[in-house]
Specification:
alpha/beta; Rossmann fold; seven-stranded parallel β-sheet; single chain; 2 domains
Length: 260
């Protein structure tokens, strides 16, 4: 079902987004990747995806805080591939602080990148998906779309907003051959998280294994990280015909975190 389809994955130069882009490319989709980082590393990653999976991969540097740039990325994808069949809204940032000390500019940036960018991307792709009678929109939310944690007011608010946006758009396009779903991961072992483990161990005077189990995975009953490959496989499944009746859902992939 996904072979020959065309996808955009925002925030996909590393971490979860790159894992999803890899899974989509492996399943035969052409992919527009997006994000910030070292230009040489991004180009090497783009070329590797093309070479290893035999699909076309392009890169957009669109800034997810700028609606015009998001629309431009969608148009560039149409020009490169002919259509946008799959949109994965993954771009996100985080800041941790108590609400009374939370910098307003950080609030604005998190809402813009984690929530508003999804709205702008969806708004741009829906007309073409309606014309073709097919579309798959996947919003990468978080367990924090379903439960809260202290000191993450902007992130939790944005991810709860992503859940509401997912449900609303799904209802609007339910008869158009378009599905809209959100994946809600728990803690994922990305390179960014891996870098934090030895620093946290040193700061707390505990072992790296204790950091993993008793700090990072304290809320996850499985005591195992979600992997980017698992998230990518779920994204591919949601793009297929077998998932055509799954829409408007927020699917936890959190090791049992939100079952508690």
């Amino acid at each position: 079902m996904i072979q020959g389809k065309n996808a955009i994955v925002t925030g996909s130069t590393s971490g979860i987004g790159l894992g999803i882009a890899e899974s989509l490319a492996q399943a035969g989709a052409n992919v527009m990747i997006n994000g910030f980082g070292d230009a040489g590393a991004i180009e090497a990653g783009r070329a590797r995806l093309e070479r290893e999976h035999g699909v076309t991969v392009r890169y957009s540097p669109a800034d997810m805080t700028e609606p015009d740039e998001i629309a431009g990325m969608v148009e560039a994808t149409r020009e490169a591939f002919g259509s946008v069949d799959v949109l994965v809204n993954n771009a996100g940032i985080q800041h941790v602080a108590s609400v009374e000390t939370f910098p307003p500019e950080k609030w604005d940036a998190i809402i813009a990148i984690n929530l508003s960018s999804a709205f702008h991307g969806i708004r741009a792709v829906i007309p073409g998906m309606k014309e073709r009678g097919f579309g798959r929109i996947i919003n990468v939310a978080s367990a924090h779309a379903l439960v809260a944690s202290p000191y993450k007011s902007a992130y939790v608010a944005a991810k709860h907003g992503v859940a509401g946006l997912t449900k609303t758009v799904a209802l609007e396009v339910a008869e158009e051959g378009i599905t809209v779903n959100a994946i809600a991961p728990g803690y994922v072992l990305t390179p960014l998280v891996e870098e934090q483990i030895p620093k946290t161990a040193e700061a707390r005077g505990i072992s790296e294994d204790e950091v993993r189990r008793d700090v990072l995975l304290a809320a996850q009953p499985t005591k195992r990280f979600v992997t980017v490959e698992q998230i990518g496989e779920l994204a591919v499944y949601l793009c297929g015909e077998g998932a055509a009746s799954i829409t408007g859902t927020v699917l936890p992939m959190d090791g049992g975190w939100t079952a508690q």
